[in-house]
Here is the input.
Amino acid sequence: MNTAMKQLNRKLMVARRHGVDSVAMALAGRALQFPLALAFGGDKWHLRGFHTTNYKKVAVRLADAVPGRLEVVAEVGCGLGDVLKRIPARRRIGFDIDRGAIRWARFLQRLSPRRCEFGVGSFDALIRSDAERIDLLVMLGWFHYMPDEWIGDQMRALLASKRVRYLMVDEFPEQEGRIKRLFDAFGERVECRHDWQDDKNLLLYRCGG
Ligand SMILES: C[S@@+](CC[C@H](N)C(=O)[O-])C[C@H]1O[C@@H](n2cnc3c(N)ncnc32)[C@H](O)[C@@H]1O
Here is the structure.
């Protein structure tokens, strides 16, 4: 079978698994969001919306595994806040270094009843924020291209300045073991869920903060 046929078959399989309603929502979302991507200059990756991206659904369900009420949820590298805005919490804080994505997220926020506070920045911005305790810290879809040392330094600085109860992070298949090895130093791994679509694992850690 040639590559084009294989890709088409894969797309059909993915669409079938998500279901007709999700595919319709994703297509409508993409059509509406395309002009916003151009207007705000955010990365086109964000057109890959929630409804047909399985790891985002897994992440929202995995947040349910955190015991107790979520007062504060923070995400670093939040993009448009697709995951963040769906996690039930009293306060949601998202940071991203992509200024265009944050402007785009803030625009979408005006149309949504789910409140999030979005800011440009990374761990340094979260460290400077007024949130002292974070019930769940989310970091998805970008650690695979950051060096171990950088991740380690950022996590140590964050955990020294904030009380973090749980954290969620993902690990790509071609790097299996890397994120686990890094994060096992920062907490106890309590859940690992597999995402069938991107073949990655989502890990939940208890940090005890
Ligand atoms: C693949 S997207 C995932 C977005 C979001 N986490 C999600 O799953 O929907 C990765 C995001 O990480 C952001 N990012 C990359 N490096 C970053 C850094 N050093 N600090 C904060 N955000 C970063 C990118 O701008 C991008 O929006």
